[in-house]
Design brief:
Number of strands: 0
Largest sheet: none
Helix content: over 70%
Shape: rod-shaped
Keywords: Membrane, Transmembrane, Transmembrane helix
Distance between the termini: 46 Å
Radius of gyration: 20 Å
Order of helices and strands: HH
Number of helices: 2
InterPro entries: DUF2061_membrane
Pfam family, one: DUF2061
Number of domains: 1
Length: about 70
Amino acid sequence: MTKTITFAVMHFSIAFGVVYAMTGSLLLGGAVALIEPAVNTVAFYFHEKAWKRFETRRNNSSSLPPPIFQA
């Protein structure tokens, strides 16, 4: 969870900086910086869970013994 939180802080800072640099608006920069990273942080959390599941399945399937009969 710490990885997710530090990612959110970094993402918030980048989103705010980019929008503020493009528009000069603190309000718009703050709004985009709150909404966009929040959505991405949730997506990142589920992406990590899915990726971990994929890696676990891949590791489990590679530990199987080779088939007895090969074509």
